[in-house]
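Ligand-bound model needed. zinc ion.
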Amino acid sequence: MHAWPASEVPALPGQGRDLRIHSTATGGPVTLSPGPVARIYVCGITPYDATHMGHAATYNAFDLVQRVWLDTKRQVHYVQNVTDVDDPLLERALRDDLDWTALAERETALFREDMTALRMLPPQHYVGAVEAIPGIVPIVERLREAGAAYELDGDVYFSVESDPHFGQVSHLDAAAMRLLSAERGGDPDRPGKKNPLDPILWMAARPGEPSWDGGTLGHGRPGWHIECVAIALEHLGMTFDVQGGGSDLAFPHHEMGASHAQVLTGEFPMARAYVHAGMVALDGEKMSKSKGNLVFVSQLRRDGVDPAAIRLALLDHHYRSDWEWTDQVLQDAVARLGRWRAAVSRPDGPAADALVEEIRAALAADLDSPAALAAVDRWVDRQHRHGGTDTGAPGLVSRAVDALLGVAL
Ligand code: 5CA
Ligand code: ZN
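Prediction:
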């Protein structure tokens, strides 16, 4: 699939900083010092509805990761998937009497527009589950040959017990795993499984559902976790730097994915850091397509909200915290954007080299974007109160805010 156009990332004077970021797997900060090319996989959308503020917040977090790396003059190798065939998508298509491929294409196109408007850097490889199927089939076959997968009425399951490291992403106990597995696409109560947690790798064709030729697996379609693993391993290989997504993906999705990859390659770990963004809520409940309590990026854009203000609203919350979207959050961001734009539109101002270092330090410390915004606020306040004589400063502030925070002033 094609991704979306990249916005320019201005180069900044001085030296970027290595990122220290919290990993769910270690339960603490990890300092990432990738080589010249940093590698990141971020789980993409299931395209059955439009991009909401929760999605946008999660993609904002991983956009910041890339901006920190780019500031250190590294290249970034970024891969993202689109879960363009899965139960929720098929169910929505059925409910709305739509062709499932048309629904997926429409919502993916809208996602690209939203990402472009928000200045999120595009992945180099944007890969749909459907187009990944030819790569998924041999991987499932290999897992089966290795004794890590088994058949149940034509479906193929992964045996979690085949991975000695299973559990080391989420560190949950068996009861919590079982509960989350049932909530998030698993089938712990299906009779005949070796372990209730075992996730499906290949689902045999069901009447009325799309299916593909799976070679020795028979006709069917891939499970969810193996989709991301196949795409990540093909384009990034093992031990990439960051596996990213929202906190609802830590278990089972990233736990299972890591196990698939580790058993398949015999290497550990799949990723150096498993990074999870907090959940955005609306009216006290997690924003989710299944609940329908949503604020869409595209709706705000249609209402005339500047995407830069949406971005500032996201940046005002630390990526790991759960937070609530409210009208006030947006109004504060609109006001801030106005103050910042007025400040950088003046021909000179207070020196800004220290500000660039403050933004760098804030982001390098587990992506502390609220601290970065507060630092810019302080420069903007000085500018509005006292002004300054540095003719390069307003331009430098604009470039730094653009390069490091993705906000065009
Ligand atoms: N296609 C899979 C990943 S392979 C999927 O989870 N798709 S999704 O459309 O449901 O979610 C896309 C991303 O947005 C995931 O990283 C998910 O964790 C994140 N996300 C979903 N809802 C929220 C929310 N309310 N707040 C923050 N992030 C969210
Ligand atoms: Zn995924």
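The chain has 13 helices and 14 strands.
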